[in-house]
Amino acid sequence: MENIGPVTDDRTFFGSLDLSFEGMEAVRSHVLSGDYASARTAFAQFIDGFLDRKRFFSIQYERPENLYKLPGESDEEAAVRLNRPVMVSVGIPSDFSSTGVVDWFSNPTENGYEEWTWQLSRHNEIKMLAHLYHETGKEEYAHLGLSLLSSWIRQAVAPSKNVKGNETLCWRTIECGIRMGGNWPYIVFAFSSSRYFTASVAVDIFKSIYEHANRIIDAHMQGNWLVMEMNGLEHIAILYPFFRDSGKWRKIADGFLCAELSRQIYPDGFQYELSTNYHEVVLNNYRRFFDVATAFGKKVPAGIMEILRKATEATVDMMMPDGRLPDINDGALLDVRTSLEEKRRMFPDSGKISWVLSDRKGKAPDELSVAFPYSGFAVFRDGWGTDAVWGMLDAAPFGKAHQHEDKLSLLAYAHSRLLLAEGGNYAYDDSPMRRYILSSRSHNTILVDGKGQDRRSSYLWKDEDIEKLSGMEFSSENGIDRAKGFYSEAYDGIADSIAISRTVWFVRGASPSSFFVVLDEAEGSMDHVYSLLWHVDDELVSLEDGIARFENISFESFESSYALVRGQEDPEVQGFIATGTKQGSYRKVNTLVDSAAGRKVRFLTLIKFDDEKIKVDFDGGGVSVRLPDGRILALN
What we know:
Blueprint: H1 10-15, H2 25-32, H3 36-50, H4 53-56, H5 75-82, E1 86-89, E2 92-95, H6 115-120, H7 124-136, H8 139-155, H9 173-191, H10 199-219, H11 224-239, H12 246-264, H13 276-295, H14 304-318, H15 336-343, H16 351-357, E3 370-372, E4 377-381, E5 390-394, E6 409-414, E7 417-421, H17 432-438, E8 446-448, E9 473-477, E10 480-487, E11 499-507, E12 515-536, E13 540-544, E14 547-550, E15 554-557, E16 562-566, E17 576-578, E18 586-588, E19 590-608, E20 615-619, E21 622-626, E22 632-635
Antiparallel strand pairs: 1-2, 3-4, 4-5, 5-6, 6-7, 7-12, 8-12, 9-10, 10-11, 11-12, 12-19, 13-14, 14-15, 15-19, 16-19, 17-18, 20-21, 21-22
């Protein structure tokens, strides 16, 4: 099974070191005499004395991302399992006990789900073992962790220079960045004090670190991958300055990290993939760089911090009343407080961050509803408490990556739940559920003749797009927030040019509960059937004509009626939402379908969260609302 790595020979490796570095005298002497066996021993002794464990462990421990265990399994129990070894990646176990050696190229999934193999090589489990060793000092954890790491180094031979960054099973550059900028530093600093951290192990590990630096420089990618890659390169350069090229590596990484902030972050603070998950991925990698640079007395390049502040505080502006972010565009229902806890070190003077970390005590942010004019989101709220009503209109451009065909989708939260939901995020496979999650069919928007939006087939991101306004309209006056978004791009298989607009009014405090009024208008050059979808994560109470009542939310359609779909798999998948990114993680959900046919159609929808009688109507070409107390509001 061994292939066998590392590919770097002793002469090349010792030539990559700055042998004039303080403490490297014995290594230099042995190298000059050609005694590489003694040089290896001297290098391990140098590493033991050089690594500043006190500085490193002053950095707050970060549990590995995407660490999968068996249900109910503790870290200690997982260590027993790993010793067999039985590995778990993306929630799927694989038993290697028959050979006693992990096959790092294997894939036990039924449909060849490549994430299993890729994520296994992130070494989340080995970092977990390193933390157990650091906390307990039990050598069995170091022995197991270093055995697993050594088996990977032997099997996973570094690719040649011309292999692209997104190729190979074990050396994609995203994994290189994650290993070097997250997991391996902890593994090295924790296990380096173990008796199992022998000269042979130490040299193999640092040969591999050297190979990682070259792989990142030669084959780096773009987008969130590039930020992860450069964070990894920063960690190598800062933590291991005895490499001859460490200064050059740091300069390269600094340059990319500075440039990528302006390239990836819209002026309103949101990352250009328009995904709550990857917004957080990018911020976390900058935070990891900040942490290691600060702990080891290195400067963070000027200009980084203010952009990061705006991007970090944007998560507060978007936060739902339960303290989580919505899982838009391959997003995640991330807990904002947990996220900010890790970033408080960067922005100790931020009022928004401090307020969230104080369990939302004291003075809340001044703004309620806010717009992101460049990234194209409108966030509605009637308060900052956990009992608030919240909503979000997605009038965003298509974004750089991880996009869903979801423009003009609307979410709504009330009664401590996300009631008007959408498909969410699912495993990155090629299953019918994955295709559904990416499509308009899983979002609260309009289908044309049963077809969804199709920006993906012809979309091309240009760097100058980061400076473009989204075209969304937003205003807030007298307790009424208004946002309007537009869609005039392609629909899958529809030759006609179709223009759709969605106007959302959020009326705050005029009735016992705030409510939404939504006007959708669609027009083409010929007749079409337009189907408006609402994914309702609530139990149905009644459905008759144009009124759909659920336990905590109701929908009223002007001059129309609803059909209901739930858990449909044929002829099209409809009526599901994902519950996680593991394969098979989804459940049924009620989906209202409001249909109209013609060349030009409109849908007027009232969405409310109580039983108060509110009447919505067209009045002289505009929209008006009659409140329970008889007042009439004109919505412009």
